[in-house]
């Protein structure tokens, strides 16, 4: 039985807009390395730019380039590195990473392909419901497989493949935490 939203007829993510430091380098990475297609380019009145890339499946990834944008601050506005390698916490209100769906049967092939193109990729993480949140050995209860890597600006990207349908009773047993539960880091 398919679920439907009774409040709003949402069609998924139209586009996710990020900020880059070098539009040319960004376009070269996303088209040349990841194979996305550039579908729209815009010069903004303030001298900035806004470009859109087709990620497949009707999803777009967009980038702004602002002439006076401040630099990213790893560990605050972007992850310092990838899960499986090191610290990836970012500040409240930031975008932590972009997960891109890939077919499970090509998952390991795509990881090897990125490595061959010179992209530093993190180890494969087989996410499961164990206390660690990941399996030390692959098994049939792994619900998603993923690995992470970063674009030229340090934006954290993930190739991920779902292994089963979610929203099962075992998927919904965690109570959401509140702001009162936070331990705010000193900046």
UniProtKB/TrEMBL annotation:
<protein>
    <submittedName>
        <fullName>VOC family protein</fullName>
    </submittedName>
</protein>
<feature type="domain" description="VOC">
    <location>
        <begin position="12"/>
        <end position="162"/>
    </location>
</feature>
<dbReference type="InterPro" id="IPR004360">
    <property type="entry name" value="Glyas_Fos-R_dOase_dom"/>
</dbReference>
<dbReference type="InterPro" id="IPR050383">
    <property type="entry name" value="GlyoxalaseI/FosfomycinResist"/>
</dbReference>
<dbReference type="InterPro" id="IPR029068">
    <property type="entry name" value="Glyas_Bleomycin-R_OHBP_Dase"/>
</dbReference>
<dbReference type="InterPro" id="IPR037523">
    <property type="entry name" value="VOC_core"/>
</dbReference>
<dbReference type="Pfam" id="PF00903">
    <property type="entry name" value="Glyoxalase"/>
</dbReference>
